[in-house]
Specification:
The chain is α/β, with parallel strands linked by helices. The protein is built from 26 helices and 31 strands. The strands form 5 sheets. A 9-stranded mixed beta sheet has the order 30-29-28-27-23-26-25-24-31, covered by helices on one side. Strands 3, 5, 6, 7, 8, 15 and 16 form a 7-stranded mixed beta sheet that branches. It has a 6-stranded parallel beta sheet with strand order 11-10-9-12-13-14, with helices on both faces. Helix 18 (417-428) crosses helix 25 and helix 21 (483-492) runs parallel beside helix 22. The relative contact order is 0.09.
Length: 722
Amino acid sequence: MQQLVQNARTGSIKIKSVPTPTLKRGMVLVRNRFSLISAGTERTKVETGKKSLLGKALARPDQVQLVLKQMRETGVLPTLERAFNKLNTDSAMGYASAGIVVEVADDVSEFRVGDKVACAGAGYASHAEFVVVPKNLCAKVPEGVRLEDAAYSTLGAIAMQGLRQAAPTLGETVMVIGLGLLGLLLVQELKANGCKVIGIDINPQSLVLALELGCDLALSRNDDSLTNQIQSLTHGFGVDAVIITASTSQNDPVEFAAQVMRDRGRVVMVGVTGMDLPRTPYYMKELDFRLSRSYGAGRYDANYEERGIDYPIGYVRWTEKRNMESFLQLVAEKKVRLDKITTHTFPIERGDEAYKLVGGEVKERYIGILLDYGAFGGQTEVAEKLNGAHRNGNALNIAGKTSAEAAKRIGFIGAGSFAQGYLVPHLKTIAGVELAAVCNATGINAENAKEKFGFERAVSNIDDVLNDARIGTVFIATRHDLHAELVIKALAAGKNVFVEKPLALNEESLLRLAETYERTDAEVLTGFNRRFSAPVIALCEAFQGIDEPLSVSYRVNAGPLPADHWTQDLDEGGGRLIGEGCHFIDTMQFITGSEPVRVYAELLPAAARENLVITIRFANGSVGTLHYLCNGDKLYPKERIEVFGGRRIAVMENFKTLMISEQGKERIKTFDGTKGHKEEIDAFIASLGMGKPALSFQSQVLTTLATFRINQSLNSGMPETI
């Protein structure tokens, strides 16, 4: 399919052919008919994209701090390589569209194939022929509403949320400062709400159009009689509310709002302006200043947007979706007109030309810019798109290579930033390895990986990888909830499997996975990379020949994560203990040379299961303690291991240094800070077909099982046997 994208490094806009996205739980697949360019937001993205590397860095100082930390830990060159790799990607543009539903997930009941819908959301309602959108970001289009008008629903909902924050009542006078796309939508929504509306702008054409769309008074900000005219219309009291939709670095909009407000009026910021509020007028009039956050309740809430959990209407009347539905109803009732707002329509093939307008390369007035994807060709068109070359790649089940050769033909499932930063670059350097296919539910990510690393094809359907008999080994780097099921499917298809940690999220799926493994001759390696790193191997060598049990203390400064981060969701990410804690349990297994047999865990009170202190007993009598802490300074080094035994001490600091103390003498070794990702991939590929796995499957299962038992210990308050 065709999609409009922006290159992160150069900022250039282009049309790209990418795989069609794959339907996910709680979502619908939509064939776009039109999408709307949000001039303000997307102009900012275009301008940022065109900045130099220094300009980009100055715009995101928080990211610079993290890059500097990575440089200290893993070195300048590896960090820069990952940073430039991330920059050299194409990202989706757009977040407002409308089209026809062509496929519905099994757990979605409110939509049917053939429904006309408006879609919202960055990363979802993109400028692309097909989009996959969560159900709470879709709204049915009423009869009689054209899809080109429905494409405005997201922007209409943003304007609607600003209106709701202003809380206007019938007969009040409301001023709109800034008569661009949002301002003109607001003017009409306010009129539908029974308000008198005053529009303010510096563009004469915008003032004329505002009057045509129902504005009671449209005035230039440069008009000397501006204040007098407002006072006259409001009988000397001033306006009841001001909604600012302008985009400027100046502070004038908030200052001017205070001048023309009545006592105890409301000022709502929808746009982007200076917000240095002058204290005297805001204090003397006791003005209420409010911010309007995007298009309604639910915005930035992963439970609402991604997982489809709605707010009860009795408690939250106006959500994102309900605002979209309300806007569409106004369009259906002819209370909002969009014919005069749409100034340009470009076929998707010429979408890059539209951004020349937005970016100022073409000097021409614009307001609403639509991208047109052509008339809907029905199910025949959909079938061709979903089953065509971009979805399925080459023909499947093709024989011709021996199993030994196939083992080094790689299919990659999951092409996120971790996979592209830490796995694929190392895999690409191994002699004899062929990168056959890369699969990602979001087609643009798959295509990016294909172009950067030289995969033969990019696909979005997992079966295209699993059913290809030429592929002998599969790498799985998806979100955690898919790991176990994909490993099972890959093993059943006769593939060797490298799966990023964790191996599974619960004992039921772990048991099914183990049963499948026992029926195959394939190899499985979970991405427990630390045991393959040079400093951990050197640490273990320091204790060779010592028969007594070891004491291992592992401190992890994991750093805080937002409570709504996907890894914190127990169903999707498993929580931080299962999702990441398994790393450190495996490393302690490697250091002690023994299997874990019992765990006991305590935690500091917290909403999520983080800030843990865990004790692990190993079969040979060794004891490990894991301090997994998320309440420290994230910029402080992350990991420290201390090992005592045989009158020796070893201390490993963040994969940079290893101190070994014996008989009063200290030796210090230095390392490059890398954590074994390259070495684990080398070991996995070398093990294929050799009959000796890089890591025993039993060890991987016990590590995973230990994380489940730790959770049980936290619940019971007692030690738990593995």
